Each structure stands twice: as C-alpha cells, then as structure tokens.
Amino acid sequence: MADKARTFVHQSKHNAVPILLWLFAMGIVVRLTLFVRQRASTEFTQVDTNAAVEIVLAVLTAAVLVFSPRSKSVWKVVWRTSGGLLAAYYVLCAATALWSPLPEFSLFRAVETLSQYAAIVVALSYCASMEAAEKRVLAMGLLVTAMGVISTLKMAGFALSLDALHTNSYTASAAVLCCYCAAEMGAADKKRKRMLKLAGLAALGAVIAGTSSASIIATVCGGLVAFTMSRKHGILLSGMAVGALVLIFMLEGEVIEGMLFPGKSEHQIRTLHGRTQLWEAYAEEIKMNPMLGKGFSVGPRLSTFRYTTNAHNSIFSVLLNAGAAGMVLAGACVFKLVRELRFCTRTRRRGAAGCAAAMTAALVNSMGLPIVGEAWMAPSLVVAGVLGLHLLFVLNAAPGDEAARQPVPVPAEAEHGEPGAMHHGH
C-alpha cells in the first residue's frame, strides 16, 4: 500500500560513504587492470606491493561496510532476494578456508568478492532515483571497460591491432553494458535515449574490437533478450531472427563462423581455444572433492593439469572451488534471479528489460570467463552494478515508470544513523 511505502530520506550529495566505496572499488579495478601482477605461477600467493594495495583496499571497503548503518538497511531489502543467495554462496566460499590447502588465500578472495558486491549495492543505494543509479552504473562500467582496453594494449606494448586488442576481459564488461542499453533504448525518453545510445555504441565498439567469441555470443544472446523485451511481438521476431541465423549457418556456415569466431582456426573453434581440454581435466579433479570442493579460488591454480587463474567456466569454477554444496547455492541464486527478472519484465518496470538482457550476457559470458561465481575480477564490478540496479530500483519499485523514479524503498535506520529517519510516502 502506498501509505506504507518506506524510503530513505534524500541524502546529501557530499556523504562520504558512497564516495569512499566507489573509490576503493575502482582502486581495486585499477590494480587488476593497469597493475597486473606478472609473476611465476608458483608465486601467486606471495604478497608483493600490488597485492598489498589490493588487500588494504579490500580491508578498507569491509571496514566502511561494517561501520555504516546503511549496510544493515540494504541487507534487510536484499536478503530474501537473489542477492541474499549470492551472499550465502560467498559465505560458503569463505568457509572453504577450513579445508582449503591455502586457507588464507581462499578466505581473502571470498571476503574480498563478497565485500565488493556489497560495496557496489550499498553505494548505489545513495542514488536518489533510478536514473541517477543508471547513470552511475553506465559511467563506472565504461570506465572499467576503458581501463581494460588500456591494460590489454599495455600488455601488447601499445600496438594498435586487432590481435593486440583481443581479450575476453574488457569485452565481458562491454557486452553487459551494450545489452543493457539496447534493451532500455526503446522505452526511453529523448534525453535518456541519447545517453543509452552513446554508452551502448561505445560498449559495442569494445566488443567488436576485442574479437572475443564468448563476448560476441553473449552479446548476441543478450541482444535477443533485449529485442524480445523492447519491441511489440518481440518473441515472434526474435524467434524468426534465430531461425534465420540457423538457416544461414546451414547454407553458409563459414560466414557465421567468421562472425562468431573471428580469426579462429578450426581446431581452436572445436576445442573452444583449448578450454575443452581444461574442462576435461577439471572434471576429473572435481571427482576428488565432489561435495565441498578444493577451496575457493585455488582449484584452477593448484590443478595438476595446468595452472590457470580461473576455470574459464563458472560451472566448473563453482564445482572446483565449493563442490556440490556451492552449486546448490549458486544454482538457487540464478534460479531466483531469473524468476525476479521475469516478474519485473512482465510488470514492465523501468530498467527491467535492461537488467534481464545484461544479466543474460553476463551469465552466457561466464561460460568462457567466470565473471559470476568466481573471485572478483574487473568485469565483476559491472555485473554488481546491474545487480544492484535490479535489486534496489527495479525489483523493489512499484510497477510503472513514474514509481521507478522514486528513491529506493528500504527500511530506515536509527534516527541518528547515517541515512536518516524513515518517512511515509504516498
């Protein structure tokens, strides 16, 4: 009922908490992109200067969250949602330190990831409207993507070529942003449409420049969702588009292969650039610790087959790191998220189509780069931003565009708490 709606009192733009959370989060992204640790695979647990900076930033983030009254209020909103299940999954990941061969490493990676997700959601809760939160997510997402491009060029000696730009890192961020913008553009007013168009084109350009097959396929899948959600008879038209692609593939398979797998040989396409060999080896290692896993974020690194920083697939990452117990929580989280997105899109809430398309792209891309369910990566910030947008401004908004403009409905804190007292809206 309208008279029972509860919102945060509009906050000062100079509140230090969201500023600190964004600074710490972006600081970690800078560390992960522009200051990549280049060390031997046997030295990944050593704490050098770069690692020390990341640890300090993660600890500072956790400290701000612990001492901020806003954290408790936001938690009261999200604990029954997919966000609560995601938190439960990472709590389990932290608990894997009890049997991990590298307990401190597993504990830190899990706590860091959980705190970063929480930091982004809490920081977004300070935005006074859906539009303000959306702008923040797009701006931060494009900044993360830009830093990824610079990092990739830096690793290649700043050589300007498609080979030098090839990656599935910044393209993962770009795919999420591109799909969000594409889905929201149709129902946007002139000013918002211009912002979405510019951000979407920039993100699409990054996807194309990165020539990552996983990101291209993710963008296509998210784009189909966007098309379905944003146009009349979208399901029918999307089905026709998929049918046309299948027909073209049957008649001119090489054309489609060239679009989806640019620059890849037949062997690379067949083995997904060597990933299938990794997954076969991981499948055998999962059998050694099927219920609880090997320990968060250590499975791929301690693999007897080959050292990698991640399993290149979210499903294998979850099973390797947290076993069947982790898969139950992760699966429940995805199932809950899909139900939430379906509900929001059916009630035509502002931002629902964009969040659905963006999360589709994120989940599809996670089959090649586990930006969901693994340790924190630069693209994870973009996923966390979209998730925060969904949880705070879409799922908790009343149906209709105008209602979505209101501040996020969340329980109020103590009278002298950071965000202020509760008031009743109509």
Note down, in words, how this protein is organized.
It is a single chain. The chain is mainly alpha-helical and 426 residues long. It has one domain (2-419). It has 18 helices and two strands. It has helices at residues 16-33, 49-67, 69-78, 82-95, 103-124, 130-155, 162-165, 170-185, 190-210, 213-230, 234-251, 253-260, 266-270, 275-286, 314-346, 352-365, 378-394, 401-404; strands at 6-8, 422-424. Helix 1 (16-33) runs parallel beside helix 6 (130-155) and helix 14 (275-286) crosses helix 15. The chain starts with 5 loop residues before the first strand and ends with a strand. The model is unreliable at 1-12, 247-253 and 400-426 (pLDDT under 50).
Indicate the overall shape. Answer: globular
Specify Rg, calculated over alpha carbons: 21 Å
Total DSSP helices? 18
Total strand count, please? 2
Strand order of the largest sheet: 1-2
Average pLDDT confidence is: 82
List the helices and strands and how they pair.
Layout: E1 6-8, H1 16-33, H2 49-67, H3 69-78, H4 82-95, H5 103-124, H6 130-155, H7 162-165, H8 170-185, H9 190-210, H10 213-230, H11 234-251, H12 253-260, H13 266-270, H14 275-286, H15 314-346, H16 352-365, H17 378-394, H18 401-404, E2 422-424
Antiparallel strand pairs: 1-2
